[in-house]
Amino acid sequence: MQSEVVDTSRRHPRRGVSFRDAGPPAALVVIFVLFAVLSPQFRSIDNVQNIMDAAAVLAVVTCGITFVLMMGSIDLSAAGVMGASALTVSLLVANNRTDNDFGLLGIAVAIVLGCAFGCLSGLALVLLKVPSFMATLGVSAVGLGVATLMFAGVQPNVSDPMLKSWAIERFLGFSYLTWIAAACILVGWLVQRYTRLGRYAFAIGGAEEVLLLSGVRVKPYKVAVFALAGAFYGLGGVMVTSQLGAGLVQAGSGYDFSAITAAVVGGTLLTGGRGGILHSAVGVLLVMVLTNGLVQVGVSPYWQGGVEGLIVVAAVAAAVIPQRRRNQVVK
Question: Transmembrane segments in this chain: where (predicted)?
Answer without folding.
Answer: 22-39, 51-70, 76-95, 102-127, 133-151, 171-191, 223-246, 252-270, 277-295, 301-321
